[in-house]
Design brief:
Layout: H1 27-30, H2 34-40, H3 62-74, H4 85-99, H5 105-114, H6 119-129, H7 147-150, E1 173-174, H8 209-212, E2 220-221, H9 236-246, E3 250-257, H10 263-273, H11 279-291, H12 307-312, E4 319-324, E5 329-334, H13 342-349, E6 354-360, H14 365-370, H15 375-385, E7 390-396, H16 405-422, E8 429-433, H17 449-452, H18 460-464, E9 479-481, E10 484-487, E11 493-501, E12 503-505, E13 509-513, E14 517-526, E15 529-531, E16 533-535, E17 539-545, E18 557-560, E19 567-577, E20 584-585, E21 589-594, E22 597-610, E23 617-620, E24 624-625, E25 630-642, H19 650-653, E26 654-659, E27 662-673
Parallel strand pairs: 1-2, 3-5, 3-6, 6-7, 7-8
Antiparallel strand pairs: 4-5, 9-11, 9-18, 10-11, 11-17, 12-16, 13-14, 13-18, 14-15, 14-17, 19-25, 19-27, 20-24, 21-22, 21-26, 22-23, 22-25, 26-27
Helix pairs in contact: 4-5, 4-6, 5-6
């Protein structure tokens, strides 16, 4: 305790007379002279004691900047003016981020000069004239030095002369203060909170035309994601066709079927044969499966990644991966087959274009899945109701019946009439025998003698390669269904899901509905890596800024801020009943499934009963709707949800009604009520 000063016995009254600023109590003992004190003391009123400071600014890439500046300086003689290099660089960066390589550097430079360094107006000129702009002669103007590069060689003196202009005196340049928090920073939180109802009206946050007309020059920002002009200015069709010509068509594939039909094992073995899983990883799965006595599950563990799925031996959530065939790029989704996880299956099937229905060829197992209450029948009904028009039936586990052609033909004869009754065309349905465990007829023709003498058709991967890609709605307003929300490693958060309609690019302003929270797209990530833009049909991960993560939930819709998706709690719809246990009555409660969103609803009115074949109204205001009938009803939802008319968007206009764990009806939205 000798190191500590004894302050308990000190008399603090002895220090009341001491009032000397900047003087130590031991100065008299040390003997510091007044001259030495004045030499090291700072006086604000002494101009000779100003400190020479060197500004510290972030370093820039000298190679890229020098190449760009040299290119501009070499061509500066074509005009009769001094080119403002700094503003020219900002405008060129902005236009190239928006248009990519659509225009040459010389065309962009001429457009910027013609628009008086207004980036948006220059982009409009390029699009209107297809880049064919004459050399523009402008009035000479003294160049504005670029602050980030010129400040490094300058110092601040105590005099009144300024070595460089202040930011507020620099025209058309707004510097972002890195020390000040910018508006719209997302607040950390959990995405698993209870969704709040959208009680406030929502309005578009687009910039008014009056603001754009003020002045000839645009206010530019030094941020990396500049504000993007109106979507109508972008050549969406040209960009989409350019990408399609350089890559394979994308198809979203869902694997469905009864529980224990071997879906995960079949697709896991297929991925292994295609090289998507290496031998080392497969050996690890086999070793871990043998330890718990489930050696036959080694291929299923390629897609079943959670501990609960592996311990129970069933798929719970929709697994997603991708692979390529000869002519197609496949986005694969493995849906759960157990009846308790039908909502997850609906979420995955709503994002699919085509489907592979896996059935078990084992005697007794196929009949169990296909009879009333089996998931083979229910999954087929759900897939067709959610817009899947092409189907491949994989007759799995053919090795258990010794590749019997008689058994295969029997399954085909039982399923073909059912598919036709559901609404599938004969040309859009095909049957392929295979074995997921042995790998026969997945990527190569079966080598067993029993199968080789009668099956001469395509393998499973060859039949998947024959799927026709659907027509994408890239000309519609942007709509993305959020299927996952998570925090990113670089800060902020990201949302994942499939783009149902429209087109996005980095820097676009978007809005989360029904919360109405608006923000900006920071980055877009696909399976192939980072991308500048994405189109309808792509499954992407979007990093957002300016939105609180507490306002984002699974099932919400990310949409264009200039064209918001409608939000309502009342709607009219046409439904087709399946085989409910009891007739549908007014006042009955059920569960409303739309894409990834689930909400409780009430059948408020039964408006009419409709003939399924002709669409004519058979009865108005019926007392009930029985099984295998159709009708028009009015629904009231517990909370406001995003809804689109079926005529405007087929993907967002479909829904399902479930009650007591079974799907009772499928419907389309015909009118949105206030």
């Amino acid at each position: 305790m000798s190191r500590h000063r004894n302050i308990r016995t000190k008399n603090y009254d002895d220090y009341d007379d001491v009032d000397e600023y900047g003087k130590s109590y031991n100065d008299e003992e040390i003997g510091v002279s007044p001259g030495t004190v004045s030499q090291f003391m700072y006086r604000r009123d002494d101009p000779g004691k100003s400190v020479q400071r060197q500004p510290t600014l972030p370093e820039e890439d000298p190679v890229e900047d020098d190449l760009m500046m040299d290119d501009i300086e070499e061509r500066a003689d074509e005009t009769s003016a001094v080119v403002d290099l700094d503003r020219m660089k900002l405008c060129i960066d902005y236009i190239e981020n928006c248009s990519g390589d659509a225009f040459t550097r010389e065309q962009v430079k001429r457009a910027v000069l013609a628009a008086s360094y207004n980036a948006e107006r220059a982009l409009q000129l390029l699009l209107d004239h297809q880049g064919n702009l004459p050399v523009v002669s402008v009035t000479a103007k003294a160049p504005v030095p670029f602050l980030a590069k010129k400040l490094e060689s300058l110092s601040v003196s105590g005099g009144d002369k300024r070595a460089f202009p202040r930011p507020e005196s620099t025209p058309n340049l707004r510097l972002l203060d890195p020390g000040r928090s910018q508006p719209g920073t997302p607040t950390p939180g959990s995405p698993k909170g209870t969704r709040r109802g959208a009680s406030k009206p929502f309005s578009s946050r687009a910039t008014s035309r009056a603001d754009e007309s003020q002045g000839d020059t645009a206010t530019l920002s030094t941020s990396k994601t500049p504000e993007v002009p109106s979507r109508s200015l972008i050549k969406i069709t040209a960009l989409y066709e350019q990408r399609q010509s350089s890559s394979k068509p994308l198809i979203n594939l869902i694997v469905i079927g009864h529980v224990d039909a071997g879906k995960s094992t079949l697709m896991g073995h297929l991925l292994y044969k295609l090289g998507r899983v290496d031998a080392k990883q497969m050996a690890k799965f086999e070793h871990e499966a043998n330890k718990i006595g489930k050696s036959s599950f080694k291929y299923a563990w390629v897609l079943d990644e959670t501990g609960e799925e592996r311990s129970r031996g069933i798929t719970i959530d929709v697994a997603q991966t991708s692979f390529e065939t000869t002519n197609k790029c496949i986005n694969l989704m493995d849906a759960p087959g157990h009846k308790d996880f039908i909502p997850n299956m609906i979420t995955g099937t709503a994002q699919a274009d085509v489907a592979v229905l896996v059935v078990d060829a084992t005697r007794g197992e196929f009949e169990t899945g296909f009879q009333s209450g089996g998931q083979t029948r229910e999954h087929t009904l759900l897939a067709r109701s959610l817009g899947v028009a092409q189907l491949v039936v994989a007759v799995n586990k053919m090795d258990t019946v010794n590749w019997s052609q008689e058994r295969f033909d029997q399954i085909v004869q039982m399923l073909a009439p059912f598919f036709k009754a559901v609404g599938f065309k004969d040309a859009d349905v095909d049957f392929v025998p295979c074995s997921g465990f042995t790998g026969d007829n997945l990527t190569e023709s079966p080598r067993t003698v029993e199968a080789a003498h009668w099956w001469t058709g395509p393998t499973l991967v060859e039949r998947i390669d024959q799927f026709r890609p659907p027509v994408r709605q890239i000309d519609k307003p942007f709509r993305q269904i959020i299927t996952d929300v998570f925090k990113s490693q670089a800060g902020g958060f990201s949302v994942a899901g499939k783009i149902e309609a429209g087109h996005i690019q980095t820097g676009d302003r978007v809005t989360i509905m029904p919360a109405g929270a608006a923000g900006v797209i920071k980055s877009i990530t696909m399976d192939s890596g980072a991308a500048l833009n994405a189109f309808a049909g792509d499954s992407v991960t979007v990093a957002l800024s300016g939105i609180d993560i507490l306002n984002v939930h699974v099932g919400d819709i990310l949409c264009d801020s200039n064209n918001l998706v409608p939000v309502t709690s009342r709607l009219k719809a046409r439904i087709a009943l399946f085989t409910p246990k009891v007739p549908l009555l007014a006042g009955q409660e059920c569960v409303f499934h739309n894409q990834s969103y689930t909400e409780s609803c009430l059948i408020k009115k039964l408006l009419s009963q409709i003939n399924r074949n002709t669409g004519e109204i058979q009865k108005k205001n019926p007392r009930m709707l029985t099984k295998n009938t159709s009708g028009e009803i009015e629904l009231t939802l517990q909370r406001p949800v995003c809804a689109e008319l079926y005529s405007a968007s087929r993907e967002l206009g479909r829904f399902m009604l479930r009650d007591s764990g079974t799907t009772i009806a499928a419907g389309v939205i015909t009118e949105i009520l206030s």
